Amino acid sequence: MIIRIVKLQFQPDKTAEFLTFFQSIKEVVNGFEGCLGMQLLQDAKHPNIIMTYSHWIDEDALENYRLSEAFGGIWPTIKPWFEAKPEAWTMHPYFDGFSLK
């Protein structure tokens, strides 16, 4: 399993537009083959900073999503709304305290 974290910094006047758009695509991403689940997180002090946090079976599953028609329809829509270049990290889990609760 891998964890993918993507930081998206939107133009402040585009943040609400992104959140509305996300409502229409969240199940497409979350239900994509190989995706084990995802969260959308909004910074408490800088609401135009949004992060996606997703779990994938492996890097091949993530790459299949990135090459998919679904991603091809999402990314061009939101890309013009960015205030800064997105940042992304692909991580291997080391410790999961959430599963212990």
List the helices and strands and how they pair.
Blueprint: E1 2-9, H1 15-30, E2 35-42, E3 49-56, H2 59-66, H3 69-78, E4 87-91
Antiparallel strand pairs: 1-3, 1-4, 2-3
Helix pairs in contact: 1-3
Key attributes of the depicted protein:
Alpha-Beta Plaits, alpha+beta
Can you put this structure into words, describing what you see?
The chain is α+β, with helices and mostly antiparallel strands and 101 residues long. The chain has a single domain (2-93), classed as Alpha-Beta Plaits. The chain has helices at residues 15-30, 59-66, 69-78, and strands at 2-9, 35-42, 49-56, 87-91. A four-stranded antiparallel beta sheet has the order 2-3-1-4. The mean pLDDT is 96.
Q: How would you concisely characterize the structure shown here?
A:
The protein has three helices and four strands; from the N terminus they run βαββααβ. The chain has a single domain, classed as Alpha-Beta Plaits (2-Layer Sandwich), CATH 3.30.70.100. The mean pLDDT is about 95.
Helical content class: 25-40%
**Would you list the SSEs in sequence order as H and E?**
EHEEHHE
Task: Please state roughly what percent of the residues sit in beta strands, choosing from under 5%, 5-15%, 15-25%, 25-35%, 35-45% or over 45%.
Answer: 25-35%
Structural shape: globular
Residue runs with pLDDT of under 50 for 5 or more positions? none
Strand order of the largest sheet: 2-3-1-4
- CATH level-1 class: Alpha Beta
What CATH calls the topology is Alpha-Beta Plaits
What class would the helix/strand composition place it in?
alpha+beta
- Overall tally of domains: 1
Q: What is the total tally of β strands?
A: 4
Intertermini distance: 20 Å
CATH architecture identity: 2-Layer Sandwich
Reported for the largest beta sheet, the result is:
4 strands, antiparallel
Helix segment tally: 3
Computed over alpha carbons, the radius of gyration is 14 Å
Averaged pLDDT, please?
A: 96
